[in-house]
Specification:
Length: about 200
């Protein structure tokens, strides 16, 4: 199935179903994803070509859900990577050709939305409607880029699995660290986002 032949509104509605509500970020994210796929020559992202590309997203906002919905890329499939840059952008990489393009949402598109629908006073609604019809050049900046992907980041079975010598957790995909001659997991080596208060002897029922 060629995703570029499916009506835009049909793709958008599926994205809304996944995300939970319609918003400007959904419209923007769907259009960004379709552009990115087209740039790297992917027509059937959920079918025959699902293992031929990767997507790198740079923000944890509504548009990222849309990108995942359109492309079918996901963290669990290791075809979606998240870098917390706080930038409304995503990079699309064709694993067979090595071609990669970074697509960034233009900040000025917010203001241009007013010109398309000046009779709509609500800016949120203005953007919602304008992002549907604005040109790709008005909405996005595109950069051709190079992306070096480690063998540990590629889709497929884990290429390395070791046990942390401090806490005993198993660490996959080369995320372990060697500190003072010991193999450690990232939280033990560098500190984690959590602090263990106690280990439960029984799981509450």
């Amino acid at each position: 199935m060629n995703i570029h032949e499916i009506p835009f509104e049909e793709i958008l509605q599926e994205s809304v179903r996944v995300h939970g509500h319609l918003c400007p970020g959904q419209v923007l994210g769907v259009r960004l994803a379709l552009l990115g796929l087209r740039l790297i020559g992917i027509k059937d992202p959920r079918g025959a070509e699902r293992k031929k590309f990767m997507v790198f997203v740079e923000i944890d906002r509504c548009a990222t859900d849309a990108i995942q919905s359109v492309t079918g890329a996901s963290l669990g499939k290791r075809s979606l990577k998240f870098y917390d840059y706080g930038i409304m952008a995503a990079t699309f990489l064709n694993l067979e050709t090595g071609k990669a393009f970074r697509v960034l949402a233009r900040e000025e598109a917010r203001e241009k939305a007013r010109k398309y629908f000046p009779h709509i006073s609500d800016r949120y609604r203005q953007q919602l409607e304008a992002y549907r019809v604005m040109s790709e050049e008005e909405l996005f900046e595109v950069q051709e880029v190079e992306v070096q992907v480690s063998e540990f980041d590629l889709p497929g079975r884990p290429r390395r699995r070791v046990r942390c010598e401090a806490c005993g957790c198993w660490v996959q995909d080369g995320r372990d660290r060697e500190v003072g001659g010991r193999v450690l997991c990232p939280p033990c080596a560098e500190g984690g986002y959590f602090r263990v208060r106690r280990k439960l002897e029984q799981i509450p029922g």
